[in-house]
Amino acid sequence: MMGVLGSSSSSLAITVVLGLILNAVVCYGGTSSNYSRTAFPTYNNTDMPVDSEAFYVPPGINSPQQVHITQGDHVGTAIIVSWITPTAPGSNIVLYWSTQENGTKIQLAEATIGAYRYYNYTSGFIHHANISNLQFNTKYYYQLGEGQYARTFWFVTPPAPGPDVPYTFGLIGDLGQTYNSNGALAHFQLDPLNGQTVLYLGDLSYADNYPFHDNVRWDTWGRFVERSAAYQPWIWTVGNHEVDWAPELGEPVPFVPYSHRYHTPYEAAGSTAPFWYSIKRGPAYIIVMAAYSAFGYSTPQYSWFNQEVLKVNRTETPWLIVLMHPPWYNSYHSHYMEGETMRGVYETTFVQNKVDIVFAGHVHAYERSIRVSNILYNITNGLCTPMKNLSAPVYFTIGDGGNEEGLSNAMYFPQPYYSASREASFGHGILDIKNRTHAYFAWHRNEDGYDVISDSLWLTNRYWYPTDDSN
Ligand SMILES: [Fe+2]
Ligand SMILES: [Fe+2]
């Protein structure tokens, strides 16, 4: 008996030692949060009902609704105001005035009015107005609609592009329209460091998950985000749930609802399609990439990107940020390796041009990489391992707005080398750019009703501080 016990103890000891060695050799990744969301009845993955108060319907049957704004030019002196009137075209006029003239100089801009059909759905009247020649760093009010049902909103233009103008961006992705989505948006709006502009990482309404891609859910989503998107620009990235390609429904053209509802300033960026474009905003040069449009060699997007990235003047806009939907460095089971094709085409250019940060969504969880690249492979050399690279970006996945598909909580173990931090929770991010060298990033978890910072770090600029190894 003693012999058996002794043998068993020895085996256990060997196993423990081997385990420790293997752990030291193999588990070289960062941290995997063991935080587990508890089920809580009012914070769940169910879409809010169509008549929810979160989908604000203004009084007046034809009042402007689903109001949202985005940048309207390349530098931040224009804004696109978009809204929908449900039953009739109504006024196409935007009245606007700045606080600098004490509201005495009221100007107007005219909107285009359009509509679309999708299967058995007919949209309301979709208005888009581009208000241009605005002053930098100025608060403007704008008014839509007529008479007693006119609605007034406001926005603040960014400072002129410059290397040391502080600016704060919110990061939201894969929001959807569940109770969790409502919590994530509320936490973002209540954050004391409220992002001045939202960088939205794709997958908006998830209407395509409904029978016949029920476009009523595009309307409810537009009403849901109005409380933020009418007051601060949301910079749009296209996700897979925006494709809405359904030839079986007689809808063979992709992106019909999205492209009618959400405009971007792509022409000002020399792009030939609204899905890939760039803007300057304060200290940042932001390039938006389209993973669900052609992006390979010789495509319009490829040609545009390779010219665009060379235009970035880091003395004017030191922070080079890229937005895309599917992440390149992902260690969740969900959408694993989906970014590989785009990574293979573009990663070398990212490193050569010292992209600072890449924000992606798509995976419904949070993840942050080390500065990593995998650009040595040439088919014959076998060099296909991600390696630390101080000229490479930090990759963030923030696909955790809270949509009805739920969390991506299955992770690969051991945590890969490139993964610095990951957590399967819903939440939002804030990027607080201080000056040309430093920015502070924080990711906020929705801990049921509470907003808890779960990951944060200082990021140093790759152009101005290229040798800093702290992030
Ligand atoms: Fe997605
Ligand atoms: Fe998604």
From TrEMBL:
Q: Does the keyword Phosphoprotein apply?
A: no
The top EC class, named as a word, is: hydrolase
Which keywords does this chain's UniProt record carry? Glycoprotein, Hydrolase, Iron, Metal-binding, Signal, Zinc
Report the residue ranges that make up the Purple acid phosphatase C-terminal domain in this protein. 392-452
Superkingdom of origin? Eukaryota
> Which residue range or ranges hold the Calcineurin-like phosphoesterase domain?
168-366
What InterPro entries does UniProt report for this protein, alphabetically? Calcineurin-like_PHP, FN3_dom, Metallo-depent_PP-like, MPP_PAP, PAPs-like, PAPs_C, PAPs_N, Purple_acid_Pase-like_N
- A Gene Ontology molecular function term of the record: acid phosphatase activity
Q: Spell out the SUPFAM superfamilies in the cross-references.
A: Metallo-dependent phosphatases, Purple acid phosphatase, N-terminal domain
**Reactions it catalyzes:** a phosphate monoester + H2O = an alcohol + phosphate
Q: What is its EC number?
A: 3.1.3.2
Q: Which Pfam families match?
A: Metallophos, Metallophos_C, Pur_ac_phosph_N
Q: Does the keyword Methyltransferase apply?
A: no
Please list which residues make up the signal peptide.
1-27
What does this protein need as cofactor?
Zn(2+); Fe cation
Question: Where does the sequence pass through the membrane?
Answer: none
Domain annotation Purple acid phosphatase N-terminal: ranges: 64-157
Protein family (similarity comment) = Belongs to the metallophosphoesterase superfamily. Purple acid phosphatase family.
The record's listing under PANTHER family reads: ACID PHOSPHATASE RELATED (PTHR22953), FE(3+)-ZN(2+) PURPLE ACID PHOSPHATASE 12 (PTHR22953:SF35)
What name appears for this protein in its UniProt entry?
Answer: Purple acid phosphatase
- Its gene name is PAP2_2
